[in-house]
Amino acid sequence: MEQIVTMPFMKRRELILAALGLPAFTLVGRAETGHHYSARLIGGERAGSTWRAGLDITLEKGWKTYWRMPGDAGVPPQFDWSRSRNVKSVTVLWPAPTRFADKGGETVGYKDRVVFPVDVVAEDPGQPIDLALDAFLGVCEIICIPVKLEMSLAQSEPTPADASLIAAFAARVPQKADAQAPFHVASAALVETDGKFDLALRLVGQGFDRDLDIFVEGSDFAYFRSPRPAGEKGLVQLRIDGLKDAQKLKGRQLSLTMTAGDIRLEQDVVVD
Q1: What is the pTM of this model?
Q2: Calpha distance 96→108 (Å, rounded)
Q3: Domain check: are 61 and 102 in the same one?
Q4: Positive/negative CA dihedral, 240, 255, 54, 130
């Protein structure tokens, strides 16, 4: 069965639960509450061989969990679906995240509540799916608590509330920036100023002037901070932390997740 694997853990947050030797939390077909979060697997609609489920996480006020690229101080989720039955593949969909800054550093993720839609393809479309998840994620405020979940959910008719909840968060998953998109990146280049590097992006289209943020993936040696205007309309620059040699990024393909108001887009670019 196809597995979804996230990037390695980042190490700047203190993982106190492991240090204290506290037990992992277990969830089997029910919600786990307490310790600043609750989590559950929920079912949605099935179309042919694909069943859309969801991982629903609710967080206490002030607490957060992380996106697949968690920033320079976060803990990326890891999902293992190998215990599932009648499952050919599992694809986790990622709602667009938010950038946070605090004393521990800059992080990328979610507060309050997030549902990760999950597309499950059956081995045998004529048989029900038994979905099982082993997950590791960080639930963080000033410190970070590592959480292990063991969850399972048998396919059944979804409740209207659960199906609607999954659909609402699926609508927040970024779409590809194609010819019909409100805007896209026309060029990407490196700019050096006083020994520091920026990623310069030229945006064309409309709608990108409303609370624009851009999250960059594709480099395990550099972190890209939030975009800032760079003169003419549509030109923005993202300061790059950790880049010592410009040649390491030139010619590299980067994946951009862009948010502006209610616009959420994804685009791959090659750095000139």
Answers
A1: 0.87
A2: 10
A3: yes
A4: negative
